[in-house]
């Protein structure tokens, strides 16, 4: 690789996409030199959005398998240019992916050839592996009796959940594991009968908790440890708690909305931890556990999770020495760069879905393979380029020539962004429109904004359903809901007017109604997609800001204008001077404390 790609001191660049400046640090250059790629021309956030644009989790359409003609749901609409196969046909021996192989053409840009191959090779209608009675789950595996889960694994009888692992008999979960009989949780672990809560561990028989650990029979509380029978952080006896709980009326939709408002106002009056970074060393980001030397990483968990990584999102479980790896990366993944959904692999670069493989560049949906360049849908192959087989010597001679050609004849998109070797797949060549992908979930745009920024947009397809019930006419209490609600078309309260992939209407399925009755919870008024977006609003963005601790000092005898501490802190009556990297933006209303001040208040 040409040494002119590298500088070993800090370098500030302007992002090709957003035009904002970003810094490349010496350790970054060390990594790029180690894997022999040039430094990026997109900033970290724009690189993340670009990777998100190849992943559709929630936009589902009616379609048919191109091989067996089976009708099912698909992440590709009927008018897309792609050939799609159902799960059984795609994994069968009824077709040969190598027949789509092409000779590399040095007269046209690399990414044009890659897109041509993408349109020819059959695509999976839905990505689901080893699932039982879970037909409508996507990007999931080992699911049993589940319904409309996405990016989830090893769940049983779980519905409408995202990034959920090893849960049972639960609904509406977002980032959570090892929980049972839970509803509407965000980032909760090892919980039982917990509802409407966020950032909780090992909590039971409770509702409306934020950042609580090992609590039981608590309601509307924040920052509690090892407590029980508390309501809005006030201690009660068991008898008092049991007598007061019915007054809260969370079995009523009207009562539930009233409590949500009260709870949201209450938690704003208490300090927040600047970041949830647990048992981690020399790491920055949020929602990290058991990480080591990881910078600007989010939702990185496992035991161990990640080590020596940067810009990782939704990753962990022994992710090592990788940059810009996430959205499902880990399980013994090493030396990865600009990769999504890749596990048990090493040397994965510019890839989406690469499993149990080694040394892959610019691939999609490749399994148990090695030494591939610009390949799609290969299994148990090696030394292939554009799905064409080569001898080892010919492959090793041709790849450097292709890399040089990528630099000499780069792809230039409609907005003038230049894609040479070292760039992920151009967004305008993605198989999905912006609002079909998870980019819309985490970096939402309007149609006008997306088009102005050079992204494609999918207008809603005509819906011919007849509405049986509108949301505000549903029974207020679950006890008043009759069995005939099952199968009726209910209009989503957003009526498709939001920017949240609203399906405009939804149905209650039998197991869902059974769950609401068992948990004594009212029927929802929003479709599953809109409910998912409401949970997303509870999490912080995938960004960091440098901020100062807001602790003003003092204890009970020295009141603070924003929060009165319960005890004296190390800095006494003076404001804390600690600074940190946090995902709480400076203009947010929450009170943000450093680790030391926070722990003084909750432990």
The portion of residues assigned to helices is: 10-25%
- Number of discrete helical segments: 12
Shape: globular
% residues in beta strands = 25-35%
Low-confidence region ranges: 1-6
If you compute it from the alpha carbons, what radius of gyration comes out, rounded to the nearest whole angstrom? Answer: 25 Å
The secondary structure category is alpha/beta
Distance between the termini: 53 Å
Largest sheet: 14 strands, mixed
Task: Give a structural overview.
It contains 12 helices and 40 strands. Among the domains are: 3-39, no CATH class; 469-536, no CATH class; 544-603, no CATH class. 18% of the residues lie in helices and 29% in strands. Strand 33 and strand 34 form a beta hairpin. The radius of gyration is 25 Å and the shape is globular. Mean pLDDT is 93; it is low at 1-6. By secondary structure, the protein is an alpha/beta fold. The strands form 10 sheets. Strands 19, 20, 21, 22, 23, 24, 25, 26, 27, 28, 29, 30, 31 and 32 form a 14-stranded mixed sheet that branches. Strands 9, 10, 11, 12, 13, 14, 15, 16 and 17 form a 9-stranded mixed sheet that branches. Strands 35-36-37 form a 3-stranded mixed sheet, with no helix packed on it.
Defining traits:
40 strands, disordered N terminus, globular, 603 residues
Explain the layout of strands and helices.
Blueprint: E1 11-14, E2 21-24, H1 26-35, H2 44-52, E3 61-64, E4 71-74, E5 84-85, H3 87-90, H4 110-120, E6 123-124, E7 128-129, E8 140-141, E9 156-159, E10 162-165, E11 168-177, E12 183-189, E13 192-198, E14 204-210, E15 216-222, E16 228-231, E17 234-235, H5 238-244, H6 253-267, E18 271-273, E19 277-278, E20 285-289, E21 292-295, E22 297-301, E23 306-310, E24 313-316, E25 319-320, E26 323-330, E27 333-343, E28 346-355, E29 358-367, E30 370-373, E31 382-385, E32 388-389, H7 392-408, E33 411-412, E34 418-419, H8 439-442, H9 447-452, E35 469-470, E36 490-491, E37 505-506, H10 510-519, H11 528-536, E38 545-548, E39 579-582, E40 591-593, H12 595-602
Parallel strand pairs: 5-6, 7-8, 9-11, 10-11, 11-12, 12-13, 13-14, 14-15, 15-16, 18-40, 19-20, 20-22, 21-23, 22-24, 23-25, 24-26, 25-27, 26-27, 27-28, 28-29, 29-30, 30-31, 35-36
Antiparallel strand pairs: 1-2, 3-4, 16-17, 31-32, 33-34, 36-37, 38-39
């Amino acid at each position: 690789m040409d040494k002119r790609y590298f500088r070993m001191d800090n370098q500030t660049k302007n992002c090709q996409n957003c035009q904002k400046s970003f810094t490349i640090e010496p350790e970054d250059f060390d990594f790029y030199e180690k894997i022999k790629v040039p430094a990026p021309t997109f900033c970290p956030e724009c690189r993340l959005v670009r990777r998100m644009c190849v992943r559709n989790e929630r936009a589902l359409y009616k379609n048919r398998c191109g091989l067996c003609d089976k009708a099912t749901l698909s992440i590709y609409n009927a008018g897309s240019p792609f050939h799609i196969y159902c799960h059984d046909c795609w994994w069968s021996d009824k077709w040969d992916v190598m027949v789509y192989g092409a000779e590399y053409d040095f007269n046209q840009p690399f990414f044009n050839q890659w897109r041509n191959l993408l349109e020819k090779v059959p695509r999976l209608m839905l990505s689901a592996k080893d699932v039982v009675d879970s037909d409508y789950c996507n990007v999931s595996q080992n699911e049993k009796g589940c319904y409309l889960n996405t990016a989830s694994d090893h769940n049983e009888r779980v519905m409408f959940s995202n990034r959920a692992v090893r849960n049972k008999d639960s609904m509406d979960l977002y980032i959570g594991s090892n929980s049972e009989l839970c509803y509407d949780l965000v980032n909760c672990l090892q919980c039982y009968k917990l509802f409407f809560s966020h950032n909780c561990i090992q909590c039971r028989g409770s509702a409306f908790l934020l950042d609580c650990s090992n609590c039981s029979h608590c309601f509307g509380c924040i920052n509690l440890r090892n407590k029980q029978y508390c309501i809005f952080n006030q201690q009660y006896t068991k008898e008092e708690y049991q007598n007061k709980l019915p007054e809260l009326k969370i079995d009523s939709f009207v009562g539930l909305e009233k409590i949500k408002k009260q709870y949201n106002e209450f938690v704003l009056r208490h300090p927040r931890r600047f970041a949830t970074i647990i048992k981690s060393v020399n790491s920055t980001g949020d929602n990290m556990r058991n990480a080591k030397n990881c910078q600007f990483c989010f939702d990185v968990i496992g035991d161990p999770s990640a080590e020596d990584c940067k810009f990782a999102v939704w990753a962990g479980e022994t992710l090592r020495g990788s940059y810009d790896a996430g959205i499902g990366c880990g399980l013994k993944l090493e030396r990865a760069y600009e990769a999504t959904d890749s596990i048990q692999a090493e040397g994965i670069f510019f890839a989406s879905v690469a499993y149990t493989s080694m040394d892959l560049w610019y691939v999609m949906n490749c399994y148990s393979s090695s030494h591939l360049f610009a390949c799609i849908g290969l299994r148990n192959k090696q030394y292939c380029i554009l799905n064409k087989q080569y001898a080892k010597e010919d492959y090793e001679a041709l790849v450097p020539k292709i890399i040089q050609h990528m630099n000499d004849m780069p792809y230039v998109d409609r907005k003038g962004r230049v894609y040479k070797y070292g760039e992920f797949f151009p967004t305008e060549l993605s198989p999905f429109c912006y609002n079909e992908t998870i980019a819309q979930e985490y970096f939402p745009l309007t149609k006008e904004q997306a088009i102005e920024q050079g992204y494609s947009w999918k207008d809603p397809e005509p819906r011919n359903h007849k509405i049986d019930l509108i949301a505000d006419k549903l029974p207020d209490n679950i006890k008043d809901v009759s069995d005939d609600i099952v199968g009726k078309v209910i209009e989503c309260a957003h009526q498709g007017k939001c920017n949240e992939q609203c399906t405009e209407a939804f149905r209650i399925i039998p197991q869902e109604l059974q769950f609401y009755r068992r948990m004594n919870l009212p029927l929802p008024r929003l479709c599953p997609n809109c409910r998912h977006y409401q949970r997303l609003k509870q999490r912080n963005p995938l960004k960091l800001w440098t901020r100062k601790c807001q602790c003003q000092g003092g204890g009970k005898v020295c009141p603070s204008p924003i929060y009165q501490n319960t005890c004296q802190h190390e800095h006494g009556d003076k404001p804390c001077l600690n600074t940190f990297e946090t995902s709480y933006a400076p203009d947010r209303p929450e009170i943000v404390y450093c680790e030391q001040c926070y722990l003084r208040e909750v432990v």
